[in-house]
Amino acid sequence: MDEYKLIKACLPRTWSPFFARHGNFTPAQAAAIPLLLAGQNVMLCAPTASGKTEAALAPLIERYLAPERQTMQLTLLYLLPTRALVNDIAGRLTAPLDRLRVRLAVKTRDRDDFDPRRPASILLTTPESLDALLARRPKALTQVRGVVIDELHVLDGDVRGDQLRVLLARLRQVRTFAAQQGDASDAAVQYVALSATVAAPESAAARYFPDARVVVVPGGRSQQISLRAMAAESAEALLALLEEFQALGWRKALVFCNTRAEVELYATAVRRMGSPFGQQVYVHYSNLDRLRRREIEEQFAQADAAICFASSTLELGVDIGTIDVAVQIGAPGSAAAFVQRIGRAGRRRQTIQAVCFFRSPLEEALLRALLAAPEPVPTRAPFRASVAVQQIFSLLLQSPTGAIRLASLSLLFEGVMAESELAALLGALQEMRYLQSARVGEWRAGERLNRLVDQQSSEHAPMSLYSNIQNRPPTVKIRDQNSQQIVAAVDPLWLDRELLTLEGRSLDVTWFDGEALWVTRGGTQGEQSRLPFLSSRQLLSFELAQQLALQVGMGVGEAPLLETAEGWLLFHWLGDVYGHLLLALLRPHLAVRESVQPGLALLLGEEPRALPSIGGEQVERFLYAQVRQYEGMLALGAYAHLLPYASRQQAVAAQFDVPRFVEGVSRLALCAAPEQVREELAALLYKSDCQCSR
Description:
Elements: H1 2-9, H2 15-19, H3 27-37, E1 41-45, H4 52-64, E2 76-79, H5 83-100, E3 104-107, E4 122-125, H6 127-136, E5 146-149, H7 152-155, H8 159-180, E6 190-195, H9 201-206, E7 212-216, E8 222-229, H10 236-243, H11 245-248, E9 252-256, H12 260-273, E10 281-284, H13 290-302, E11 306-310, E12 325-329, H14 335-342, E13 351-358, H15 361-372, H16 386-398, E14 403-405, H17 406-412, H18 419-431, E15 435-437, E16 442-445, H19 447-454, E17 476-480, E18 486-490, E19 501-502, E20 505-512, E21 516-521, H20 542-551, E22 558-564, E23 567-571, H21 576-586, E24 592-594, E25 601-604, H22 616-625, H23 627-631, H24 645-656, H25 658-666, E26 669-672, H26 675-686
Parallel strand pairs: 1-6, 1-7, 2-4, 2-5, 3-4, 5-6, 8-13, 9-11, 9-12, 10-11, 12-13, 17-21, 22-26
Antiparallel strand pairs: 14-16, 15-16, 17-18, 19-20, 20-21, 22-23, 23-25, 24-25
Helix pairs in contact: 3-4, 6-8, 6-16, 15-20, 15-26, 17-18, 22-24
């Protein structure tokens, strides 16, 4: 095609190392590369394995990394949401960048080969590590000309996405100051964001950079997804699937579970009951030591035939080789997670092969709802004020004078926080001794912030200065007796089991040295014949609960009433968080209590004639009074507890999305459960074991 020839001619340096082995450009590359070469900001939405990384980097290298450059300076930032993805992309880029003689560096908490004195041209990093670089070495960023944000959907709408919005604004300030001082030729920064599943790409891109040209590449791969029943207390259905592999021509499977406990239990069962994979049975989740996780990724990728059980850690594009089939046990908590998980299969093929197991009618209905409407639904994305607390602390470390001023903060947070909110926040932090006032309108680090800075080198620091992720509770290290290596760090509750397993193998505890539990790994002999499989589901969202209502044949807003021996079930289809609040608001008016699935239905003592009217002001007053109860449900960030109390109340109400809740409740129309769905409605709550599918 002439169009492709023209694009190739515009990539004299990067065509050969990035594209020659494929012989042409993908549609995503053909659409995005000309825009980026012209200097435009781009939001690229394209299917998995469509070459988005190359589409972003090649034109930026052509524009900003001329071969005759003599000075060493960081020019391109490539941001990824996880350390595993950073390592994966680094491995993929090593060969083409070596051919181009372009230096690449990595900066994460686990791996840091970036030298600010002799900076590489391209830096792969996470938002948290970029925060640390801005705070400690802002001069290293004065020459950045291009920024790539990969897997944007993982960050957008989350507290980490809010942090990234401020970090990019700080980067623009660094560039502007450098240009004003004559240390940079100009202050311009070019942006490109990449995603396969981001909702509402125009508004998503606008939260991070201006004037984005949105490129949406339709299509993707066809899907062959089957649903199968599985007993809640047995893995026999999974073993039966594995026995079919040879006939189907499959050799490798990636199995997703919703909890780390399930990962271990199903892996143990496959090892114990025997499988076509022999000892090529792997597990992957966050408690495993990072070096061990990397070994597992490499071993699984290199294996000719193998199976890997994983939690959400392998949802994203870590390179683990070609997967023939993705297996999902139970329903994930969101449509985005479902799309990511099944999309891991056959990434270089035209068809996605997936098998989804359900262990209850509810899991079956959820999976069918996800299959019927798998694309994420656009959601509001209010800025979380708690991010401002963390950013103020980080800015104090960046400041050459060790001070911050309200005027400069107002410019940085323009559009997301008012000056009055920032002034109240600074005053509250001063009262708590995290800040102390200096000159008028100026603040410096206070006693408690200095103590927090001193604690950063300890793994027991209560908060990270560069992260808004909630700290995990204290863990117990697991050390292998034979290798002497730490292989995992687990929650103490993990130890409260009759059978301890790690990577699907039983463990014998030898001793505890005060810091780590020393273990020897056994085989699979003598293990329980009946393992306690957990039928756990993740938090049910409002969007997925609404889809579930449609799946069982109810119209939008229909709230069926079903009489049971315990009372009347009122199906509201609002999800877990909204269902929790509805229960609290109805209690003064009705004899109501929690059902076994409060995200779907509430239990009433008698048949209601109508629901009381619920208004926005009433909801806000209740949330304001119960702010501590709802903060944990809404993931407001690690620093939310340091906000002024009024700001915490406002943050809870904003993240809760009061108007959406009021609208959802107001359209509930009580009706008798239709005869044809009564049994199905009851099964969603009470039937826990599926022996067969419809």
